[in-house]
User: Fold this.
Amino acid sequence: MGVTGPNAPRSRKGTETRARLLAAAKLVFEDDGFLGARISDIAEWAGLSHGSFYHYFDSKEQIFREVAAVHEALLTAPPDHPEPVDGPGCSPRDRIRTANRRYLTRYRDEARIMGVIEQVSRHDAAVNEARTVSHKDLAARAERAIRRLQADGVVSASLDPAIAATALGAMVARFAELWLVQAYAEYDIDEAVEQLTLLWANALGLPEEPSTPAALRRKPKPGKPKPGKASKPGKARKPVKATTPVKVKKPGKPKTSVTANG
Assistant:
């Protein structure tokens, strides 16, 4: 993300320092929520003085909005590597299944910060806009895919592709929040992916796929993670080093639940 304006860094060192502040801010927001987070803690995590923060950001709100925008973009970004479903011979269900798995996996991996983003988006227009852009991006891709299926005669022409894409995308996004942020219930990710894919396929009226053992459609996993729960943080606080990338695993203090309205 390019940065312009009076707070834009003018050197490579400035760019690295700004990245450290963003990394530190993510960690503090995850632990303390938006309302509980303090600029002094963010600066401390980045290994900077309190005053140095203001060379790069005007306020806590500004840095949070940028953290939110970065993670919304990561959530909806194309796959990092080509996927098997990109090749010929893959069914529409395969593509839907892969997209659902990618979204849920990314949301799960960043569930702590996504929970704070969901809260703040309800009262901050800029963060809500970032969420809206993310949803619209996913819906636009889904709409294009539905239109292609209609052109191929696979999906009924009576289905409105824009409404279907928005509704089905909202279903997946809301399910992710309920499961991974609000801990509404505990699900196996493979089963969640399969059920969401089934709902998509039934809504679009896709033909049944050949009987395939469920185990062959699922990716092997090392273990069953607890939905929405991050690994236990450690005790010591260490400054974020200059070489630390933006995505950093925090060893910090236990998470404090903070609601958006205080």
Observations:
- The mean pLDDT is 82.
